[in-house]
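Input record (one chain):
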Amino acid sequence: MALPAYDLYDVRSMLSDEERAVQEAVARFTDERVLPIIGDCFDQGRFPKELVPEIASLGLLGSSLPEEYGCAGLNAVSYGLICQELERGDSGLRSFVSVQSSLCMYPIYAYGSEEQRRQWLPRMAAGEVIGCFGLTEPHGGSDPANMKTHAKKDGGDWVINGSKMWITNGNLADIAIVWAQTDEGIQGFIVEKGTPGFTAQEIKHKMSLRASVTSSLFFDNVRVPDSARLPNVKGLKGPLGCLTQARYGITWGPVGAAIACLDEALNYSKERILFGRPVAATQSAQIKLADMARRITLAQLLVLQLGRLKDAGTMQPQQVSLAKWNNCRMAIDIARECRDLLGGAGITTEHAAIRHALNLESVITYEGTETVHQLVIGRELTGINAF
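The corresponding structure, as predicted from the sequence alone:
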């Protein structure tokens, strides 16, 4: 019996019925609604906002949060599978869901008041309110402790000044989760669109994540009430906890991008005839394709175990770093190799490989660069901080 080309170790058999149903539903959505338009969206530099109501109706926004807030209450493995299938379509779409779910809804749930949860989470799950996450700053994203944005207490209000950079969903967002230095350490604030002094400016001329909105945020004496502050966390623990949630989803997403590239290269190499035979009939092509399947299989097993650890409540941030490092590197290398197998055709966005390769340049960089995650593992092994 032939093995499934993109699941050589039958990882699917290790999933529960609910997890398989989630994967199938999102795979259908990606095949039917995303793939027919995403190449054009990338070319046009346009986020397919028209898909947001369908994404919400499938329960993909805040999918791991409790049902009492209008969310799906799914487990971590199901969320991972959502990320995998969405990124099989495009990293930009998975980024949108990651930011909404892990970087905006999660901090409101984990660090917010009950009033904030009731006010925002149901509407965010329904796609009626879009969020963005304001942490990274222009002078350097890998050193959040050196944050320049600050919030000063003024009576019952807070006044925020500063700027944020490379913010996914920035110009789409109705609210921003903004992290700022205060006299009591770093704190988070929910800043609504239209608040005086708060502006977003979309970043243009991108060659990566073109089907995603990326922005700079500016805060010029932005006044918010204390009720907009996330009351249940202070210090770097808050934003870093959000990043761990988002990085977890990112460990799964590139598996989908790699599968999309392998699928395309495999089919193309069977059809393309060179020197009287299909490219797939050559030893060099088969070795490349086999090596891609090997790396995808290892990545699938890695994230499944990571998801089981997360569902058991024992997942450690270092384990997330290892998986993000491995799987992003795996996917970007496969995308580039698939582009090569496609020959000249591989440089056009009529094929997926170049689009995924370009997108993965961002994915391997954001939420901690490859070097940062390598140093996290190095510190874990040696006990010495080399940052």
